[in-house]
Amino acid sequence: MTSKDVFRIFYYPEAEFRYPLHHHPEYEINLVLGSKGTRIVGDAVETYEEEELVLLGPYIQHCWDGAAYVEETGITPEVIVVQFHKDLFTNHWLMKDAFVPIRILLSESSRGIEFFGETRKKGIKMLKELRGLSGFPATLAFFEFLYVLATTSEKRQVASAGYVVPTPYFRNKRIEDVYNYINQHFKKDLQLAEVAAVANMSPSAFSHYFKKCSNKSFIHFLVEKRVSYACKLLLETECTVREICFESGFNNLSNFNRLFKKYKGVTPKAYRLSLERDLLQIKHEGRFFAVEDKTGN
User: Fold this and answer.
1) Are 202 and 196 in contact (CB under 8 A)?
2) Model pTM score
3) Listed residue (163, 72, 56, 277) closest to 64, CA to CA
């Protein structure tokens, strides 16, 4: 995509789902209609059915695999993909208050966002209409579409919290410094008082401040970050569960297993086996290939 494009839209009336697991620097909106299969976004491997509307942030790995459904039913799904540059909303006038909801949405999209309910229905209609527009009307319709996604409650983040930490466009420097500190030190024995000092606040005041900013306690956020990193290691390495436990910042294997199951619903071993089973099926069917990152990052 060129620097002159606000966005680009691609239409695949008979998608074959042969695109491999990959990532790229653009934001991407994926609309999949008339398909069933497996979706990989970050550390999340899930099934999807019939209608799928997902927003992806830059560099998060993703793949939709519905080829088996096509082979079984003969039904070819319809796919619409919209991409736009990761720096689009850093333009000076787009930093105005009117765009705050969209900037928050894009920040949250680093974990992938799935939309459902009436929002998905409205989004489908808007994307189909967007295909027929060009020039300034298309730009206005594009911004309106993003605003609908930004202001709905019918959405959920797909990958685990902390898998890709959002760039906090909309937060002040204090909470940015705190997030960055946690990201750099979550593997060690990180205490509330230590992080509170980064914000130049008392532990008690910081505890309330952090919960107000993130909608969760510091401990909750830290454990999610560690569990999410463990998911990444389970997906991308051959390290043992014990090795991953300590590498992720946990100091006790039984506690790691307990917390992992609490947050993910299964044990680390079962989580890895599930990933291996799903990915092996894709590999055997010839729909999964390693992709080199050609962005230089």
Assistant:
1) yes
2) 0.60
3) 56
